[in-house]
Fold these 3 entries.
Entry 1:
Amino acid sequence: MSNNVITRFAPSPTGFLHIGGVRTALFSFLFARKNKGVFALRIEDTDKVRSKNEWTDALINDLEWLGLKHDVFVRQSDKADIHKAYIKKLIDSGHAYVSKEKVVEEGQRDEVIRFKNPNKKVVITDLIRGEVTVDTTDLGDFVIARSIGEPVYHLAVVIDDFEMGITHVIRAEEHLSNTPRQILIQEAIGAPRPIYAHLPLVLAEDRSKLSKRKHGETVSLTYYRNKGYLPEAILNFVALIGWNPGTDQEIFALDELIEVFDLSKVQKGGAIFNVQKLDWTNKQYIEKMSLENFVAAAKDFIPAGTSPKLFPLLKEKASKFSDIVELLEGELSFVNPLAAYPKESLKWKQEKDLETTKRHLKTVIEKLSQLEDFSKESVKAVLWPIAESAGKGNVLWPMRYALSGREKSPDPFSISEILGKEETLKRLTFAHDLL
RNA sequence: GGCCCUAUCGUCUAUCGGCUAGGACAUCGCCUUUUCAAGGCGGUAAGCAGGGUUCGACUCCCUGUAGGGUCACCA
């Protein structure tokens, strides 16, 4: 592999980083790292009206959070002088000209700079799509600058890629149609042509391109950050949209991705972003975490005052951190005072009647009253023989229901330990007296 | 509409002419189990259509169809 690969991720600071952008950034990053090359981040802020510093900051912050560290940083607006010089050169050499325009819309200029289109066929060699031939005649003399000092995207991209020595342009497929005009500009300024790789689009459920207008915030990385997904999991999941190494492996650390990544294995067709798989992937990562790491990572999602005894259960059941609140209000709400429940709920489905249920509860109360060590192991040890002889559901269901007041909850032994002897016996007695 | 790209289970995909079409998510069933989750086992589920090429096409070619992208003084 070549030793001097330089890739770039070039977002415009006009909005949040969306999932498709994350994938583009990741692939550019992976390809650079894989080839021991350089990964550059370039902020494309030539649109002064729509570009905002806040978006730039957010972009940098998001990428850093993901762990996609760039080696080079360029702000396009800092290159204004260089752009201007090229525009002049292009005009002087006859490749571009100042064009008088008829103003039909507000904000339009009566004078812009257009590229003199040589009207030829361009053959793009794309790493993913092979050869694509386009006749540029259809493009006409397109605009390359609003004025001598204001280049338009296509011009700025070509100049910057050239100046930065970009060897591989890895970007989304939506840019494939733009490539011919960029190639024309390259030829005019005498820049070498980089190697192109146009990634298939990341699609929404309805198979259309992800967009804020149409699909709302759920396409933004921020949305998933706020929901408490892990950056490693997002990267892992996104890597597998439109690419896979050809093996059955599903979970990859970033280092592993770098090792096995291969642009030629990238898919050609667009792929739908599937949240269920993201959830599953994220859960895999949570399972691999130590309890300490889980608690530390999830600290912003765990309400103050939550009993540390619940932490293992939270880790076991949450597939993303935002699940924690739901869990605490639902399945794990037994730590709060119990709401009233119908006494029939205490009866196991295979149990004869409430009388028997009451008897089982009494036995449980008697056994636990004498118990000193209230660890779940210890509680289980004294009750298990009884449960086995009387029927596990017959004994354990009423006990669990009495302790949790719910159809779904952790096992009664864990609840006992968390509640402690006093509260456990209080709830059991309450249930017993109810019957 | 012009130009361009694409087309395997619901979804993400493997297959680079030999396929009883494999895996993962989701889904369903069973086991485990006091419930839920997790886990284990198993099931349902796919080659857009029509022509070629070939001994043999999911794989190659053509046409059609469908979907997407792009046609800005946005990137």
Note: The radius of gyration of chain A is 31 Å.
Entry 2:
Amino acid sequence: MTAITWQQTSADGAARRGWLDTPHGRVETPVFMPVGTRGAVKAVDSDDLKAIDTGIVLANTYHLMLRPGSESIEKLGGLHSFMNWDRPILTDSGGFQVFSLDPLIEEEGVSFRSTVDGDPVKLTPESAVRIQEGLGADIIMVLDVCVGLPAPPTVVKAEMERTLRWAERCINAQQRSDQGLFGIIQGGVDPDLRVLSARETAQMDFPGFGIGGLSVGESGTDRNRAIEAATSELPVDRPRYVMGLGDPEGLVDAVARGMDMFDCVLPTRHARHGKVMTASGDLNIRNQEYELDTGPLDESCQCLTCRHYTRAYLRHLFRMKEITAMRLLSIHNLSYLTDLMRDARVAITEGNFATFNADFRETRRPGSA
RNA sequence: GUGGCCGUAGCUCAGUCUGGUAGAGCACCUGGUUGUGGUCCAGGAUGUCGCGGGUUCAAGUCCCGUCGGUCACC
């Protein structure tokens, strides 16, 4: 009995719908997972997330190991209890920080300088697993090396191979049986490397697979090709998680190619910067054109923000840097992506995903509003 | 009343000594941010240089006058 299982409930072309079962319940896929780096999705709380119908959230090993420390969280009863979230949680391993914080990478592990106090911090495949076991998420990730693109092919290949070696070490380090450890596929935008990485990773029999190293500046065409290459080698009965992907078009592209899970800071970060995702395209709430606009952010949205507040009011709050603006815009953007995935699931079941995809793209086009 | 200082973009002010394309920060108007540092970056619009006269090829800058503000002293 593995902690994490996934089963397909319907499909339309390559797109697929399913159930992801975890110790904290079932999540319908495809699903978007809000990012709660330090045990909180910025600007919103767990009640807000439930109102949005968030099924699962992500938290971050690197940030939580520094503060408050996984030992503290373990003593406090684990991450679920700590953050008052009784639905599934996925923790990222710190692999992305390998990319974003530019640490020293050695075969043993990676060495960072702490972003909190400047102290040297080391993360190895074994310690990444140990820390994630202390945090107690339902799904944990292997420590990988995410290479910034573009990068020399030799570097992409070498770090993809290092990720494979580290994946083995993570499996050997795992002690808890009530968590699902996902492997991560690397290989940049080279389809051959993606195939190789996926084949080797799939042989390790993980209960699910992350596709990492994307959404780091590559074109949509390159990303889709990399996803397709990786998928060709992945088992059909395991969930596929595209790490860091969050732009609406990218999500639908990935769902069309059989991807099941996504996480991204985009909806919440954009919210804090005034950018709003809507069915008729993105808009910037600080723009002057909304000064006297009494409509909702998105006519087709039923979120708390769209039910109660006007664009004019939200523009005012945002320009005045009122904390409430961040909460309300975050609620909306998270709702938009959550609802987009819900609509995709329905379309898959009804067998009209292609129509859904075409309509989505048409209405998102600039000026179509 | 006398003396000093100040008056330049919506705001706060550089630039005046030593004349040579009207500037900065903030604010304003746009764009960017993908396994999170509420940041940051990039671009754009903005002028009766208080007013009047003079000197000069050329004045925000030098000279004279004047108006307004402010401080000190009577």
Note: Chain A has 15 helices and 16 strands.
Entry 3:
Amino acid sequence: MYALVDGNNFYVSCERVFRPSLNGRPVVVLSNNDGCAIARSNEAKALGIKMGAPWFQIRHMEETHGLVALSANFTLYGDMSNRMMSLAAGLGPSQEIYSIDESFIGLQGMRGDLTTRSHAIRARIHQWAGIPCGIGIGHTKTLAKLANHIAKTAERKPGSYPAELAQVCNLTALPAQDLDDVLASTLVEEVWGVGRKIGAQLHQCGVHTVLDLARLDPAMVRRRWSVVLERTVRELQGMQCIELDDAPEPKREIACTRSFGQAVTELPPLVEAVSEFASRAAEKLRKQGSLASQLLVFCHTSPFRPGPRFNKSVVVPLRRPTADTGKLVWAAAAGMRRVYEPGYKMAKAGVMLLDLMPGNVLQGELDLEDEDHRDRTQLMVALDALNQRYGKGTVHSGATGGSNKGKDWGMKQERRTPQYTTRWEDVPVARA
DNA sequence: TCTGGGGTCCTAGGACCC
DNA sequence: TCTGGGGTCCTAGGACCC
């Protein structure tokens, strides 16, 4: 049995802890470069503001509806998250931190009334961390997720579900008929693992509610869709297919990408940008104790704007797996010089570290013939510690070309490796 | 004018080998 | 020489998550 503890409107709730005057008002938190809304208060949701809505499309509500917009402060949210997570951990014997605002709690072996206990934990998180939460309980992670959705919706939209399910929804304590009623009044796309595409396909097949989905034959679902959706169906039926992952593996790839506030056409600022990205990515890489074997660099024009399109990337092989900022920055800069073509308004660029393997920077590189290398890697570990303690950008390795503090890079969507990736050897050198 | 930034898993198909 | 089956590895792309 699992619980899912999830902070409501998390970024907005974090801001409200320090600015109580925002309570009761429509508030959004905006992404990098104030591009679009990545968190919305209940009041903002009630205004019809969608997740990811571009700021320029909703800003008129500042005047018409008193909408308040805040620039994101991710350092603050990370701090608040840590507090919330350690309090949530009190609910059961194991915990998987799933995202900045959500954690699954394993409830195996717990005695007593879990609903009452959850209400108590919820009150404690609100009182000590200042964050309002919803808690959902189910026999599987998928059901716990669904329960959490019901707990939050019942609170936000009275009448949508029985009032006693608000804030804490324990599906395992519901009589069978009540459970069916709840599942029948929830649409399939609310299920964890069902997105827009598959949701639409399900509706076409007459599968509209979660109850409809839960009653499908798993074997048929596997044939018609995939093993992934089959697993979801089984989980809805109460069979555990997804385990609690309380000791996650290190990341298999690490990315740092940004959209630019204003389009960039020249090579030097692009090289500077990806150098900074590589430096950030190298920090993440060392933090998880990995080395990278390949580095991918890309840049592209805006998909939203007219004009000539450009979208290219290159994979730069690294001679040896490394976590050395200097080497990664060099590779990123070299890669950008290769992909760059003049005459385009670049909207976004990024760096991805690929083909990661475990390896301590120091121990992993001791056998290098490079004499300075050991000293440099030791220095980098020291710099990482300082930056972590005193904030990003406190000190830089000389290789990264100095501070980019205050630079405003914007944002845009990029989910997968760019399409036109070429091999390093096949790319002609750009004219600089 | 102005439109996130990260990640994961699964599958299909090609290359290569025996 | 010709033909074929089967396994493995890799990559690209689709779908999903927050």
Note: Chain A has 16 helices and 13 strands.
